[in-house]
Design goal:
Blueprint lengths: L1 H18 L6 H20 L5 H8 L13 H12 L6 H14 L10 E5 L3 E5 L4 E4 L19 E2 L12 H11 L6 E6 L6 H11 L6 E6 L3 H15 L8 H13 L4 E8 L3 H9 L4 E6 L9 E4 L5 H12 L11 H7 L4 H14 L3 H9 L13 H20 L27
Parallel strand pairs: 4-6, 5-8, 5-9, 6-7, 7-8
Antiparallel strand pairs: 1-2, 2-3
Amino acid sequence: MNESVKLVVAALVAGAATGAQETASTAVKNAHAGVKSLAVRVLRRAESVPVEVVELVESDAMTLAGDESGTAGHRELTAALAAAGAGADEELVAAALKVLELIYPDGTHAGKYQVWLHGNQSVQVGDHNTQINYNTVIPAPLPAIESVPALPNFSRIPLDTALFVGRIDELDQLEEVLSGSGRAAVVVVHGLGGVGKSTLAARFAHQHADRFGLRWWITADSRAALDMGLAELAETLQPATADLPVEQRSALGVRWIATHDDWLLVLDNVTTPQDVAGLLSRVRTGTIVITSRQRSGWRAAETVPLDVLAEDEAMALLARIVRPEWPDADLAGADRLCGELGWLPLAVEQAGAYLAQTRTSPAAYLNLLARFPARMFTATAEGGDAQRTMARIWHVTLDRLADTRPRDGCCGLWLGSPRTASPGTCSPAQ
């Protein structure tokens, strides 16, 4: 039992030292508080344990030493826990292992106390010489994330779409910027909301799938979303990390990226360069494509501006959306409609879906838009015209929904939005 008691002491010492740091995660602090509470409970049950030892545990009056029992205080604590039967307390030992796994996720310290799984019933804990059996399931220390290979040809890129039109020059620009080798290749595709940045990134990823062993997509519109995407990457590569806190899985994801080179990472809809600066500073190899409305401030990256569609491309997109559902549609006036929509891909997509599902002609749709002049809608300076265009389209749609009695619990009119699309779908606009 002495080895399991040493494990508890190691968790108390490491937890106290780590928890005192400003950067300590909530998960570590909570886990340390839990093992400390359990240790105090065990010590108080033993009449022979001095009150001073209990107070030592309660007050965290200990520091991390080279060896967990190397000081007189640690020796006294070890003896007290052994006398109190802490080594036989399954809940306390399991809580101690959890603390060490959180603080040392790569197993550098917790690995000293090896854990062997036996089915779903019991484990053994020891330091190569002594093993103690416990009827509780505790995960073994994880292998270092740096040693985990990429999943062969794994992709979390949205599905390619047949609605993609144009963008030949921009695809060529991406290829030129990202064709280098050696250091990390980072490029930012920037433009108005709804101009098709996400779809351009997805098309590039599909066209060059054979260049990358792993292709990973993160909707990175906030730092929290970026952390979650990196955490999901770590969990995908190493499923045993699933129970770790998000911040630890995110750090593991960054470590994997920083030590591998055969990957493509798409960071979609980044708000500001500061949100990804920390990640970019860690990356030395690999390929990153960022999409953002922000056009400035990208010091460490090449940029590819994305404008609205050309007139003929916008009309081609409208036809591709309408014809499959309404083959004999009269699209006279499509040029004027696309012009009124500013040749914005998202606006053309939404309008085309409306035309197809309601059998409305371009001319009739223009009349509906006329009910909502652009001057009625305010917008910020950057992307103002695009925002006004989308506001007008959605007012037309909402009017239609208000006039349509729902059937079978559904309005019958759905205009797909890329912001609500699943990772397995893709829209021709951002």
